[in-house]
Design goal:
Blueprint: H1 14-17, H2 21-35, E1 39-44, H3 49-52, E2 57-59, H4 61-70, E3 76-80, H5 83-92, E4 98-100, H6 116-129, E5 135-140, H7 145-153, E6 157-159, H8 164-174, E7 177-181, H9 184-193, E8 201-204, H10 215-220, E9 223-226, H11 238-247, E10 252-255, H12 261-266, E11 269-270, H13 273-282, E12 288-292, H14 295-304, E13 309-312, H15 328-339, H16 351-367
Parallel strand pairs: 1-2, 1-3, 3-4, 5-6, 5-7, 7-9, 8-9, 10-11, 10-12, 12-13
Helix pairs in contact: 2-15, 4-5, 5-16, 7-16
The protein binds 1,3-dihydroxyacetonephosphate and iron/sulfur cluster (SF4).
């Protein structure tokens, strides 16, 4: 059990909610100066500009966890991202470091689709119909520390969207099948990338008995894909790609592997947030790039590359609403409290969970 299992953000006082943008800017600047090297602010690519401008380091979920782990000086790490990212940072940092999430309601709806109790139940059900010793559980980085620990205890590993193929290859060298949690799309897309097809995959629906599968289905599957998804990436449709190609015949379509397999197979390139960033950077001036990922990142890329046309694949705005919960008032509040000697919104993973989650994360590092 993590100590933050129940996450309830208390409302902020007027001092922060009613502050003008100028007052918030002044407040954050003053706190940062006062806290000096003991403070490290991390920002995920999906954060809004008003927040990301304060980040000491920007990156994807994995890179940010590494930044936190590698910083030996900072004792207070303010994580402008979502809950599972702050947990991973806590798992990878030393005992002298504290990780703070400015708004406790900044969760991840996909991570929440794989509750540890449901995964443990699934494992027991699988044991009734097949040899679970031959199943390797793999969890995407976007999952709770409790789930990472489960995977660590059962001989599995964590993966990210950039190393999923290497991790799944490793898993299938050790066992006959993989239970892939929580994003069915990343699991399916990676399976196809490795040369498997639909016949090798089954979707495990945690709301149904035996995942909605027959024992024969379970035994036939190489990939048991947990029925989870990202509501942001699932919005992208093949019709969006067709529209973009019609409007811009030279367009390159680049999407995140959390998109559906249909979308991924119609795109020109697929990759993690770091991959997308690099792809836009290396595209020659004049390129037209339609991007299938969170809109704040796409809009920032468009601003950073005025010599290229960069736009979101989905014409209807498509933000990650939980990432969006982190705003300047919450950041200013957390920093003000630190200056006053109080730690608020600390994300702590208990020692046993952290130990096994670290095993699963370390396996990933050793494999890739
Ligand atoms: P990255 O690991 O690529 O940063 O992705 C995180 C995420 O939440 C994507 O939706
Ligand atoms: Fe979770 Fe999707 Fe938001 Fe990423 S974009 S944090 S997967 S809800």
């Amino acid at each position: 059990m993590t100590t933050t299992a129940l996450r309830l953000q208390r409302p902020l006082a007027d001092r922060w909610t009613l502050a003008s943008p100028e007052e918030l800017e002044e407040s954050i600047k003053t706190s940062k100066t006062a806290l000096g090297d003991r403070l490290l602010i991390l920002g995920h690519h999906y954060q809004r500009d008003e927040v990301i401008r304060w980040a000491d380091s920007i990156g994807d979920s994995f890179k940010l966890a590494r930044f936190a782990a590698d910083d030996q000086v900072a004792t207070d790490i303010v994580f402008c991202g979502v809950h599972f990212m702050a947990e991973s940072a806590d798992v990878l940092t030393g005992d002298h470091q504290r990780v703070l999430l400015p708004d406790l309601n900044a969760g991840c709806s996909m991570a929440d689709m794989a509750d540890i109790d449901q995964v443990e139940e699934a494992w027991e059900s699988l044991a009734d119909v097949t040899d679970v010793e031959r199943i390797v559980p793999i969890t995407y980085m976007n999952s709770s520390a409790a789930l990472k620990a489960f995977v660590g205890r059962h001989g599995g590993a964590v993966c990210t969207s950039s190393n999923a193929a290497a991790i799944l290859r490793w898993a299938l060298d050790r066992g006959d099948k993989v239970l892939f949690v929580p994003d069915q799309h990343l699991g399916r897309n990676t399976g196809f990338q490795m040369g498997y097809d639909h016949a090798d995959m089954r979707v495990w629906d945690p709301r149904q008995e035996l995942g909605g599968l027959s024992p024969a289905d379970v035994r036939a599957a190489t990939f048991l894909l947990w029925k989870g998804h990202c509501s942001v990436h699932q919005r992208f449709q093949v019709a969006h790609i067709e529209r973009a190609r019609l409007d811009h015949p030279d367009v390159r379509v680049i999407v995140h592997p959390e998109c559906s397999h249909d979308v991924v197979s119609h795109a020109d390139e697929v990759g993690s947030t770091e991959y997308i960033l690099a792809a836009v950077e290396r595209a020659p001036a004049g390129s037209v790039l339609a991007i299938g990922t969170e809109v704040h990142m796409v809009q920032r890329l468009a601003r950073l590359h005025p010599d290229k046309t960069v736009f979101t694949l989905d014409p209807l705005i498509c933000p990650c609403s939980t990432m969006f919960r982190i705003d300047e008032p919450h950041l200013a509040w957390v920093l003000d409290e630190l200056v006053e000697g109080r730690t608020v919104n600390q994300i702590t993973v208990d020692a046993d969970t952290a130990e096994w989650a670290r095993v699963a994360l370390q396996r990933m590092l050793d494999i890739t």
